[in-house]
Amino acid sequence: QIQLVESGGGLVQAGGSLRLSCAASGRTSSMRAMGWYRQGPGKEREIVSTIGWTDGSTYYSDSVKGRFTISRDNAKNTVYLQMNSLKPEDTAVYSCAGYSGRQWAYWGQGTQVTVSS
Q1: Taking a C-beta distance cutoff of 8 angstroms, is the pair 34, 11 a contact?
Q2: In contact, 68 and 82? CB cutoff 8 Å
Q3: How far apart are CA 17 and CA 35, in angstroms?
Q4: What is the dihedral angle through the alpha carbons of 46, 74, 5, 105, rounded to the nearest 10 degrees?
Q5: Burial of 55 (0-12, 13-18, 19+ CB in 10 A)
Q6: Closest Cα partner for 99 from 47, 50, 39, 48?
Q7: Neighbour count for residue 81 (Cβ, 10 Å)
Q8: pLDDT level of residue 50 (50, 70, 90 thresholds)
Q9: Minimal CB count within 10 Å: which of 57, 63, 85, 99?
Q10: Are 31 and 2 in contact (CB under 8 A)?
Q11: Model pLDDT, residue 44
């Protein structure tokens, strides 16, 4: 069993920054990667960024590339998402997820990010 707990969401003006954190507990050794998804109002959930748990390889969606940075601290079992140059269209509930090797099997409760214009 793996638990994921996000923190760091909030309200920020356009152009501002936020850093999200996701702390994992439980059988974290079974995870192959972690990532962030988001779901904006009236939109489908979309993948934002992922990071390999052992090799640190990263992926970014085109919409956040160059503005967001994902990183991990294996000692703390924590993944971070540094979000810079935020835009109103980044407004969404951001959820942390863990990849088991076959599917995104583990999910946090989500944290709200609101970007005002």
Answers
A1: no
A2: yes
A3: 19
A4: 50
A5: exposed
A6: 50
A7: 25
A8: very high
A9: 57
A10: yes
A11: 97
